[in-house]
Write the structure tokens for this entry.
Amino acid sequence: MSNCTPPIGLLDAENDIVGPGALSAFFATAAITYFTVIYAYVSNALDEDLLNPFDDRIVGTTGRFLAWPGSKDQILRQDTNGINVGNGNQHSGQKARKDAIANFLVGLSDQQLVTGLAILVAAVSGQQSLSGYDFSVALGLGWFSCTTHLATIDVLCLRFKRHGIIRDARVAGLVCLIGLLSYAFIRTTSITDLTIPVDCPDNEPWVAYTDIISLLPVWIDYFSAVRTLYFGPEIGLWDIVGGVWLKLRGRELPTVGQLTDHKTEKQSENIEDLVEKSEEHARMRLGLFFYDGSFLATFPDMTYSFCFGIAQIVALRWQNAPELSEESTEMGFGQITTLLLLILPFLAIGEAYTSYRVSRRSSAASDALSIARVSAEENHELAASPHHITRPETAGITDPSDSSGHQAVGQSSQGAAGLSQDAACSENQVSLERNRSRISDMLQARDHEFIPTDSPVEHIEFFQKIKDLGQYFPLEMKALPPLNQEPESRRARISLLRRYLLVKKAEESLGRKTPVAFFALHLCIGILAAIFLNSSNGLLGLIGALLSLLSVVLGNLKTVRRLIRFVEKRSRRNKR
């Protein structure tokens, strides 16, 4: 039975909830997760399917400015325009670094999920003994863990999607988390006395419409996370709604692959429409178009959640807190254990970095062996050539018993190993310049018959060298007539190549200043909204609510445009 009598004097709060050790642990893990996602983005450690051309430009520029280890590989990727170049061992080292960071993020993501579940289960099950103040702080910590965990879903969605059973377990955890979070939030808003247990009659729960409005963004984020885990980032809410509408009308549901191909084809057509319109502000329109679907566009919402979690805990723990006893802030066993558990992420960082270094060393050794093998073959061919000019005999005579020859060979091998990365980059740069020049000529000649008219074989070989046509026009690629059907096959391929080059030119000419300014505006609005919403000042709270609504609109421009078009169509039909 709960003791519903308010305490006389200071409140003895649970130090494992409101103590400095527990709060520091939550803040530290959330900050590590947030900044790791940022580092993974700017260092080109994200899955390539999560990035678009605007991300490539931003990551390439940031990498050159900060000299991140992945910047060279990113620049090669963004400039080759679909023609594969580069050294395989360099890409294997890049993949090892991406896997190391991804494994580290998986550990942090699971830690946030488990921590959020643990704190909410403990709070909900302890309502008879926990005061309203303890329960409110526990809700803030659980909310903070939940929103931080959601930030990792956007990064790891493709990785989770490939492991069905583990994905289902995570989704089950997400469902339990959102259920506990919703109940705890409604229970907290009905607390009238922070000094008595939550289960007392004076704190009887009741649901207000403001609770539903406050929880709606979180429910939308969780629905979006589950959608991303099962369908991937390409399939949006409107695609699922359209599929349900087709099912209700008795039509066959499209597969995820068909939906993805249709969206990809539609995006390429939209880019063509933007290019063919008036050239005034064309770079700005293209930049905003690509920004709207970029990974960078997710950072304002992620930053809002991070700042809101910090501001909420600060408001609950310090601004609106009753006077606490000294025992409430003492470091107990639970807090010390929580702080010691912070070592685990850093051990994971060390393990990930060690595996990355080992992979780089093995790649360097493989490059050195390849260079030495090529050099030996060239020397052998040179020696076997009839035009080979021999050196003076005195310059090539060595004593077989002299160990300096073996020492020179060893130094040569070490030098080859030391210069392997530079040689690989030099080889990549030569190939890159060649392909860049070729693509530039193709883009300049896109309005002319740049493909030979008298050589079908040559035009087919050229068509096959473009590696990413299917990434822009998957439906067109599947609908191409067979090669033995001339001239239909030739005309279709020439038309597709011209459209492909048009889209590529649009990607190269997109503007960055306006989208970056829009990103900065959205970011600042989200930070201010997170701070003002947790202010005790009524006017600042109202401003924070308006800024939060504006932030939601800025983060969902495509949805807003679709809603406007839908309303316009409905109004036109009603007028008729």
